[in-house]
């Protein structure tokens, strides 16, 4: 008798009593239906109770409301599915900073498409795991198709026949993988595989405008800290890059350029950067986490000229692609460069299974168990088509242009520059950094607006990252008006 | 005029025409409702069409069906939300290996609870991102509460006041973080922060039974490959560990023990391992990705005695916790050890914002944008309570005991050992490894059952990882019968 034996053993009656427990199987969908309705109703109620872009009262007030509803986190006896969903989804919705509200525009934090959020349910209910074929027979094929298709879009017709992409948790993981691939490529080239000697060999070179995840990735991977090229105008300039590469001559280098900076949405001059990198034998990674989706638009993709020459590209659809998190990608022009990620684990990809035709999936990620985040992307691309994605991208960028005009029209503001994607950066014509920071926090505290902040050219600015394709001219005017009002209070005017 | 200007500018009419586009906001729930029904119907149809634990025909047949439905991945003109959801969710459901089917029992791949899958929708629809407070005011507090609560459960009353946990994409990322924390801790201790000298200083020591992600993490982090202690009986034995630690005397070491091995569900003798690690000044990480949830059960948690002495613990609720992927955790007895993950990015956690009371969240992960995977966990714990989780854990473990008895009762099989959690490992009394591998593949190919494989004690075994709490005695008998039948064909009997 097993030490685990239940009194009386396993009983079919217990299973009958628990019908409706699981999301999968033939009975799962029927179990899901009423619970999904509970969730939708709680989302509806939460949005009404919030009544704006974010909850009122600031961190302590919000945390207090959450604690009142969410505790005890682990009661001895459960509250039941409906009660738990209603309470917790309700309080999280009420206390959300909702990017679907046009006044929530601080970060690269997009309002997800309803079609994508709905598709995500199937991932949760079926729970395929992409680390082996026998956990995800169909989902793994969907992933392969979407990855190749997006990689072809990124690298264009000329270079795309062997292009592929990996799905990541976001731009951060994509940048990590890019640095890792460079580390391993140079390790192979300079000191043979396996030895430890080459690990610190690759030098990452990036602009001061690069995302912080590049620095964190170098640290994670045990590399030297990146060599930072000054970028006083907010972009990595080829001439400055050349000076830096000359300084590290001899060392294998990975240049990281940015197509859509976090602070200002600026696009580095990729053709010039690519030429310099090639001249110095450096690899080129382009972090297009933000700007990448311009490729959907015939009108706008020219802004990313030079992208197709990169050795790897971070591409992200949970920013300018309206996907629920996570929907990151690392695209490469040639799937062969992904070989260093190959990894053998007998229970997942034994040689005899691979030879017998069971696909090896373990090289597609450093994760093991892995959710099919790609499913919602596949459904979105199919639902909207290239032209539908282009329309949303174009409309979002147009909104930034209109907001910039509004700001420029007000004598009280200084505009940082013409938006290159969908970020508008401005500050008061008169007033210091403390005023900028204070206005932003005041709007947050009151639940009126979520605006971002950016440190650029030695000063602090407001940052409005527009990612809502349904933003209206009246919303843009409301942003300006709220800032003006909060500014007047701040200066005591 | 902006280069992005749309013909005629932004028009409110375009927004009206696109009502129903977004999942969030006050109108989002109404947009979601019909799409969720489309998904549920497609899941229902897919399960019926599949009619078993996985699709028939093997990889080529499944891929062909997917390609027929999913192409073109990026059409020029979209198919619309309903059509795209219906087609793609349908084909992924039809082609799923569904862990809710009792005959799908190969991997640590669990059937998710309906309540958890439903809660996950709220994460997708609201899209909070846990890298800053102003993207996730309420969700960040829910995460903090759940993490502390689970960490207290893991470390027990004695040691838990400062315990905390980080949410990860799974056991793999949790193990990576554990190695990273050890690397940084020793770096600080031996050579001061910032310098590169200490990076390769920490030596990872694990049993041959440890998960492959430990090895991959060492590689990722630029550490020496782990020192592997032979584990002929499937567990890391304190005496063998002591020999290994003596061999690396002087080097700072991280011992990795496993509480629930991937291959056999074996639990390393933690008290003995902890004593040896302490004696040699080594840190101890326990990978309890599989066995961790035994802590929910008063009856079973004694099997994890010694866990509370670990310096870090991998704990995972997408295995024996019935969560949709991802639901991983790294628990630590003292939140202070997480300090090396601290990271500053002005736009997310500027000092003046932190001083003004906006919580800094960036140290909770190496990711930046981050989905609130914790919401479904919070809802599940609340819905089931400790006793409900315990009941599911106990029932699942009991099923393994019953299957082991069935197998032992058949003269044709050899049982690897008494199950310690919910994994049953066996092989034919007569027959070679090729027979074992062939039977498994035959059952996959025909869509009859998803069984796992394990290499143990120099031979190949079938592995049945039971994670379905609704498994019935008749299902267990069906597993045995299918294996017998496929084996007879394999031997030509
Ligand atoms: C330019 C850039 N790269 C990378 C990232 C990181 O992406 P994620 O937050 O999806 O990890 C960001 C995030 O804002 C970004 O702006
Ligand atoms: C013992 C053990 N540790 C870690 C992992 C990795 O967990 P995940 O697949 O969630 O990343 C596994 C996966 O099966 C495992 O069995």
Task: Report on this structure.
The structure is a homodimer of 493-residue chains. Chain A has 493 residues and is an alpha/beta fold. The first copy, chain A, has three domains: 23-93, no CATH class; 128-382, Type I PLP-dependent aspartate aminotransferase-like (Major domain) (Aspartate Aminotransferase, domain 2, 3-Layer(aba) Sandwich), CATH 3.40.640; 383-491, Aspartate Aminotransferase, domain 1 (Alpha-Beta Complex), CATH 3.90.1150. The first copy, chain A, is 44% helix and 12% strand. Chain A contains 15 helices and twelve strands. A seven-stranded mixed beta sheet of chain A has the order 2-8-7-6-5-3-4, sandwiched between helices. A five-stranded mixed beta sheet of chain A has the order 1-11-12-10-9. In chain A, helix 9 (238-247) packs parallel to helix 10. Chain A starts with 11 loop residues before the first helix and ends with a helix. The relative contact order of chain A is 0.13. Mean pLDDT of chain A is 94; it is low at 191-199. At the A-B interface, helix 1, helix 2, helix 3, helix 4 and helix 5 of A face helix 1, helix 2, helix 3, helix 4 and helix 5 of B. One pyridoxal-5'-phosphate sits between chains B (108, 170-172, 175, 211, 213, 258, 260-262, 287, 289-290, 316, 328) and A (367-369).
